[in-house]
Amino acid sequence: MAKEFNVAVVGATGAVGRMMLRVLEERNFPVRSLKLLASERSRGKRLPFKGEEIPVEVLTKDSFSGIDIALFSAGASRSLEFAPVAAESGAVVVDNSSAWRMDPDVPLVVPEVNPQDIADYKKKGIIANPNCSTIQMVVPLKPLHEVARIKRIVVATYQAVSGAGQKAIDELVAQTRAWCQGEPLPEPRVFAHQILFNALPHIDVFLENGYTKEEMKMVKETKKIMGDENIAVTATTVRIPVFYGHSEAVNLELEKKLSAREARDILLQAPGVVVVDDPDNQRYPLAIEAEGRDEVFVGRIREDESVPAGLNLWIVADNLRKGAATNAVQIAEVLAREYL
């Protein structure tokens, strides 16, 4: 009989938490029992899972007795407080927040890129899920790096509002509805400015170096996941009025020249990658086509003619799925299959 696991989802009522439940069900993860945990304000809610309505319990330090795997998506402060408690109780934590990503004793994992690092979970009982925009970028970059060695990455992101949570989705809905009805737009509460018909080069807080925290996450996390501190990375992250699906314009400078055809052939064989690259027929990755999918879509593959060895790519993925929930469940699948 296949082994089954007692699973907890922390932050179950949020956008990513709900998606975790959906992905666990879709991928038929071997769940023996499921515990849904959230804050006091979610007490009494019930969420669907495999035809049942599972009650949401209030997160406490006593919530993890008997839990094998705890999927966290409740924000950094909650993770800092409760992830060690869950680990001490015997659970392996897969944390979607930024809290543990750069801890040297916590592996930061994208299963298509560095699944071997999962073995290091034993140090603290915690595995970090990377930032959404980092995940989708490194999936296609890793196979290119193995062949041609990436020297430098320049990335500009175009990120959906769902990356800022349910309240951000609601804000775009409210502004859209008001505009369609010819009414004054409600004042922004989640974003610093109106998001409808706009592009905001401002995700997370600004740091002393002029970059945002989101941009520096991409810089630091890419190096850790790829296992190469010598890769130079610079990023500009932008929020756009799309509900689901992050898009990225990525420029690579390589040590070894690759033609666009060679890069395309490598990516066609890469795990988790779908190549959509037929510009003559207007075929390239689109956010609306990536929504609901777990793969990373790559197109507009072309040589950078300004350097001896370089490429340009357009990379798109569903930020709630591969950028968060699916990646976390994939990590749990490796844990279940190889370690627990």
Present the secondary structure layout.
Layout: E1 5-10, H1 15-26, E2 31-38, E3 46-49, E4 52-58, E5 69-72, H2 76-88, E6 92-95, E7 126-128, H3 132-148, E8 150-159, H4 166-180, H5 213-226, E9 232-239, E10 246-254, H6 260-268, E11 273-275, H7 287-290, E12 296-303, E13 310-317, H8 321-338
Parallel strand pairs: 1-2, 1-5, 2-4, 5-6, 6-7, 8-9, 11-12
Antiparallel strand pairs: 3-4, 8-10, 10-13, 12-13
Helix pairs in contact: 1-8, 3-5, 3-8
Q: What is the gist of this entry?
A:
With 340 residues, the protein is α/β, with parallel strands linked by helices.
Structure description:
This protein is an alpha/beta fold and 340 residues long. The protein folds into 2 domains: 5-130 and 324-338, Rossmann fold; 133-319, 2-Layer Sandwich (Dihydrodipicolinate Reductase, domain 2), CATH 3.30.360. It is built from 8 helices and 13 strands. The protein has helices spanning 15-26, 76-88, 132-148, 166-180, 213-226, 260-268, 287-290, 321-338; strands at 5-10, 31-38, 46-49, 52-58, 69-72, 92-95, 126-128, 150-159, 232-239, 246-254, 273-275, 296-303, 310-317. Strands 3-4-2-1-5-6-7 form a 7-stranded mixed β-sheet, with helices on both faces. The protein has a 6-stranded mixed β-sheet with strand order 9-8-10-13-12-11.
